[in-house]
Amino acid sequence: MKNSLTDRKAPGAVGWTPIGKWDLWSLRPAALTYFLVVESVVAAAALWLLTSVDSVGDADWLRFAAVMFAITVHLMIVRRAEESRRDESSGPHIDLTSVWTFAAAIALPGALAVLATIWMRILIQPIARRQPHRFVFSTASILGGTMLGGAVVHLSGASLIATGHVVPDLCLVLVLIGAAVVNWGAQGMNIAVALKIVTPHTRIKEFLGSRTDNMLELSTLGAGAMLGMLMTTHWVGPLLLVFPVILVNSLLYRAAERRAHLERLLREQEQLHARLTEDAHTDYRTGLLNTNGLAEYAHRLTERCRHDNQPVTVLAIDLDHFKRINDTWGHPAGNAVLAEVGRILREKLRPGDVAGRDGGEEFVVVLADTGLAQGTAIAERVREAIGEMSVVTTDKYRNTVTLRGRNLPLTGDDQEVRAISASIGVAVLPEHGECLSDAQHYADAALYAAKENGRNQVRVAAGEVRLLPAPRLDQSVEDALDEVTRSA
Length: 488
Hints:
With 488 residues, the chain is of the alpha+beta class. It is built from 15 helices and 9 strands. It has a 6-stranded mixed sheet, with helices on both faces. Strands 4-5-6 form a 3-stranded mixed sheet, covered by helices on one side. The chain is elongated. The chain crosses the membrane at residues 31-49, 61-79, 99-123, 135-161, 173-195, 239-256.
């Protein structure tokens, strides 16, 4: 039975609506009016049918007792499974209670069919655990559909006992099909209209459930029709069917468990694949792209900009005297400097830019839709940020040391050592080539020129120089020491 269209609770699922968060006092007046009208009409019809309970025969009471017993046994045994299925459901929940209510509608007097449906709903409430106003409206929808389906059968005058003649028996089949469609359609459309009033932006067909759900519901109604025909001649029919229904309910529960398990495995596999893909393209020390990731994403960005006739600026960045940092303070200190440079690049660059570590102390940055002037300004900001770094780390003897950028002023603290700066070469497409490798070649040439002319500066390819003021004294001394070492 599609008795919980109001139980949608999986955000992002097709047809989802936040019905689970509805509060009675927050409903729109139109929705409250619709609820009250439906509930009043159904209640009046049910009370009118209950007035005829005195005229019910003994055979009907016996069949009624069998149906009530079957409903009770069914719902008590499958309670835990139904709770799990409802929790896993991302749309309209379909159970098998229509077998009993539809059979009661067509084989029992209207008063007993009403009582059977109400008893079924009383047993369902501890499983569904819905708010009272939602439970009452769902009950009214189910009871209304049950009474309409029974009315189609009883008003048609068709006999539920086989006559052995083709035409009357086929007419009975058509009547039962019509009753099942009326039962199913009345419930589904009633709740769909209510949800449409509350969430006008949602299409009604999104509330009607999937094809699989509706096929299960119609199959359940078909089984209820056969049980109703059997009950007219054998009151033990519900007792014979209760255990097959419980078995089918168990199979549905196991199928739902397997599907949920497979969905979890699929999600975990997708997450693992995404993580492996990220790890395969990420330099773990800096958090930037590695060589493979840089080649893939930078090429993709360059091709997109070339297709859109947009300039692309390439920065080749190299840390000055990085080997001296490793030799003097140890590789942990060098790794800490690399990690801090990676953080600076992630902060200074735009979301659409590509930055990666191209091995050792070398970095490459590709700036989308960026001309030479803007790219040079970005390179200056990066150089200044690197030159103003302060990295607290440990030396090779595990003593705490603070490595500082060469742009910072001198201090009297012996623990602070100015040792960090960067040289940057700048090239831009299409001025410096036709592809990314051409631009990298020009940027590397500009980087080498920056190294040869004092370091800690930005140089533009093709001889356009962007020099800083004269190198600081300590940097000149370092360069002189390097020259002496090479001569020796």
